[in-house]
Amino acid sequence: MWTADGWNDYEIIDCSGGEKLERWGKYILVRPDPQVIWDTEKKAPQWKKRNAHYHRSPKGGGEWEFFSLPEQWSIHYKDLTFQLKPFSFKHTGLFPEQAANWDWFGEKIRQAGRPIKVLNLFAYTGGATLAAARAGASVTHVDASRGMVTWARENAKSSGLENAPIRWIIDDCVKFVEREIRRGSHYDAIIMDPPSYGRGPKGEIWKIEDAIFPFIRVCENLLSANPLFFLINSYTTGLAPSVLTYMLGTTVQQKLGGVVRADEIGLPVTASGLVLPCGASGRWEADC
């Protein structure tokens, strides 16, 4: 498992009974997690000192219960700063486990010894965008949600990257890629974090089981003559690491060679010493 163990401002303190107890900076949150199917005694005192608790409803969805939490606050990962706020369906605007990937591709960009152009698709609030830009890449950030792109730009400003070479694009990712191919554009690296299900700004439907493999094949056409890496993240149940390996192996690797690796990504749990799985990632990288 690839573990995001470089955090100071974030911590999973404990897990029990379908919930995780987290520290985000100086604030303690309790949120549900489908991977926490074991039940242990809740010994950590922070369970009773939470600032907010997201309660899942048996009918689907859920709601926040707030005790003493600001509308917005910030945390740091190394030299990046992220603005956080609780919003619908338990999220805060950041997936800390992705730091395992930020560290991986950040090092590859820094060691490339040449300018690197990165395309970040389904880019959300910009964690990967900022990590790539901080490493020295120029980045095209694409997301269908205007609100998410605005949030990502706030994170860039907080991180001192407001003048970094980042293009901010509000668009359906599939249509953007198709237009970039017609324009003859190319990128040295592609990152994608596709949702299980979603709609574009004009109602375009994305269903990952049907769309992801054809989309990878389309995205191959955007890779430069000397590509560096191709990263796919998945939080969809059923898309195991081996599936990500097969998809990249039968597309990018078959065409360009290189190496494909895939694994779960996770976060350490302080109380138990376990690592909580938080999804999977597949990485293709060129031969060194």
Descriptive account of the structure:
The chain contains six helices and 17 strands. It has two domains: about 80 residues, Sandwich (Immunoglobulin-like), CATH 2.60.40; about 190 residues, 3-Layer(aba) Sandwich (Rossmann fold). By secondary structure, it is α/β, with parallel strands linked by helices. Strand 3 and strand 4 form a beta hairpin. It has an eight-stranded mixed β-sheet with strand order 1-16-17-15-12-9-10-11. It has a five-stranded mixed β-sheet with strand order 2-3-4-5-6, with no helix packed on it. A two-stranded antiparallel ribbon has the order 7-8. Helix 1 packs parallel to helix 2 and helix 5 packs parallel to helix 6.
List its traits.
globular, alpha/beta, Rossmann fold, 2 domains, about 290 residues, Immunoglobulin-like, eight-stranded mixed sheet
